[in-house]
């Protein structure tokens, strides 16, 4: 399959905020944009019937396999307490021969606000000898029985919780034992296309360089993919001569992305690395202010190694100390790149993003998921938490994403969260940090509606500029095109 497609004319589509036009596509690129009805038809003619058209949407932070396998895992996202989780697990185990079944895996608990903490005893009182693994909603923590821990080659203490480095390795081992089918990957990619997505940045801890070309070859062709590499595969990528932006497959859909380095933990797991201790933490604990994923000398070594090899860097930093330290390392190396998440930032650090040429890759729906957790665990600092407008005003380039499966792989949800800072019946949380719609849209695309651009397009039924918050979240998508090829179509 080539990225080029047959010729196409889209009649009577309205660019966001403009009069209707005809858009002509040849060989995967936009070759003409003219007032509606003024062009000669070229190739297939599609009547947009006055719908709105714009550049296709990107999700700048995805863990795609985690997103795919979430569908087959026990849903814990509606739980609010440990007892809620245990009730769901208990119902799932009813009638099962406990010790002989394959592992029961759940996803989506968030324990940061639980009145009673997790414990191994409570989980095993429900699970008995069954191997049960429960994955936290932020992916940084697991709640395991001893039977499951033994299968994964780890040990758990009396809490039953495993966090950060040891957990990330255990989660990778777990995922390796659950191999989604190509049909499941295709369905997930097609579902993203149905929401207007034309591309993702893949941060799965996997051999993405090999996996994604194989998926495209097997028919997973709805998305462009920038495939990141983790430190344990960096040297292999360098040995292959790979540089960021290199094509990884003949279709042009998959390209080599950045080096992903995780510097700290997460807010929900209370491991984001902060300047101030978490409320109630033992001041003598080495983790009172969170945890480092890699130490700073190793971060410098990795980034310098990547820079020399022509590989960009994307560094996970959530806490304000993590962001400060990562900014320092980028400054020392004179290196551009991306800071992933940037959830808590010191006032003095906002301007440094732009000064250093760094992109802030943020996930607006996390602010909606975590507002109460931030109020509890980052008290007195939430005016600079998920501070998208502060980053934008300081000149930082923003990219929006989901961190799927942590939030839905749906850019319209991200755009609505960024512009409204609310959902459901709740008032806006720190409304001063709302983004204007044009800023949020610009942070969600990689191209423009212009002659010469790739024909990565989305056609929607509503004018985004006239939508309220919930209309944005539920935006009806009529068509999505990648390189002029329909990947989703209802027109």
TrEMBL record:
Keywords: Hydrolase. It comes from the Bacteria. It holds the Pfam family Amidohydro_3. Gene3D superfamilies: 3.10.310.70, Metal-dependent hydrolases (3.20.20.140), Urease, subunit C, domain 1 (2.30.40.10). It is an enzyme of class 3 (hydrolase). One of its GO terms (molecular function) is hydrolase activity. The keyword Glycoprotein does not apply. Its EC number is 3.5.-.-. Residues 44-486 form the Amidohydrolase domain. This is Amidohydrolase. It comes from Microbacterium fluvii.
């Amino acid at each position: 399959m080539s990225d080029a497609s047959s010729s196409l004319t889209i009649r009577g589509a309205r660019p966001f905020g403009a009069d209707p036009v005809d858009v002509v596509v040849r060989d995967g690129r936009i070759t003409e944009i003219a007032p509606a009805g003024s062009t000669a038809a070229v190739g297939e003619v599609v009547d947009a019937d006055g719908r709105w058209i714009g550049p296709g949407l990107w999700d700048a932070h995805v863990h795609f396999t985690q997103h795919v396998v979430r569908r087959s895992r026990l849903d814990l996202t509606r739980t609010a307490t440990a007892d809620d989780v245990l009730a769901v697990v208990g119902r799932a185990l009813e009638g099962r021969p406990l010790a002989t079944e394959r592992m029961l895996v759940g996803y989506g608990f968030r324990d940061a606000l639980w009145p009673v903490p997790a414990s191994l005893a409570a989980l095993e009182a429900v699970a008995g000898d069954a191997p049960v693994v429960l994955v936290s909603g932020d992916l940084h923590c697991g709640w395991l029985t001893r039977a499951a821990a033994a299968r994964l080659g780890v040990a758990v203490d009396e809490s039953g919780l495993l966090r950060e480095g040891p957990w990330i390795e255990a989660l990778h081992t777990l995922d390796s034992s659950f191999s989604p089918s190509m049909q499941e990957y295709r369905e997930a990619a097609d579902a993203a296309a149905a929401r207007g997505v034309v591309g993702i940045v893949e941060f799965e801890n996997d051999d993405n360089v090999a996996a994604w070309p194989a998926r495209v070859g097997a028919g997973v062709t709805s998305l462009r993919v920038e495939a990141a590499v983790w430190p344990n595969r960096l040297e292999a990528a360098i040995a292959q001569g790979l540089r960021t932006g290199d094509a990884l497959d003949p279709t042009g859909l998959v390209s080599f992305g950045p080096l992903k380095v995780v510097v700290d933990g997460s807010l929900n797991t209370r491991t984001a690395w902060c300047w101030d201790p978490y409320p109630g933490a033992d001041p003598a604990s080495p983790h009172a202010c969170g945890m480092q994923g890699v130490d700073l000398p190793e971060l410098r070594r990795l980034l310098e190694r990547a820079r020399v090899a022509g590989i960009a860097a994307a560094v996970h930093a959530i806490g304000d100390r993590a962001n400060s330290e990562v900014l320092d390392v980028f400054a020392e190396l004179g290196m551009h790149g991306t800071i992933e998440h940037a959830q808590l930032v010191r006032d003095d650090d906002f301007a440094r993003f732009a000064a250093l040429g760094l992109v802030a890759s943020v996930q607006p729906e996390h602010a909606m998921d975590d507002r109460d957790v931030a109020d509890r665990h980052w008290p007195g600092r939430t005016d600079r938490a998920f501070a998208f407008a502060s980053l934008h005003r300081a000149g930082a380039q923003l990219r929006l994403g989901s961190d799927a499966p942590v939030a839905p792989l749906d850019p319209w949800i991200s755009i609505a969260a960024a512009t409204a800072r609310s959902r459901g019946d709740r008032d806006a949380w720190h409304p001063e940090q709302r983004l204007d719609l044009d800023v949020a849209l610009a942070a969600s695309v990689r191209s423009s509606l212009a002659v010469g651009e790739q024909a990565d397009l989305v056609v929607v039924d509503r004018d985004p500029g006239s939508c309220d918050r919930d209309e944005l979240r539920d935006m009806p998508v009529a068509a999505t095109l990648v390189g002029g090829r329909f990947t989703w179509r209802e027109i």
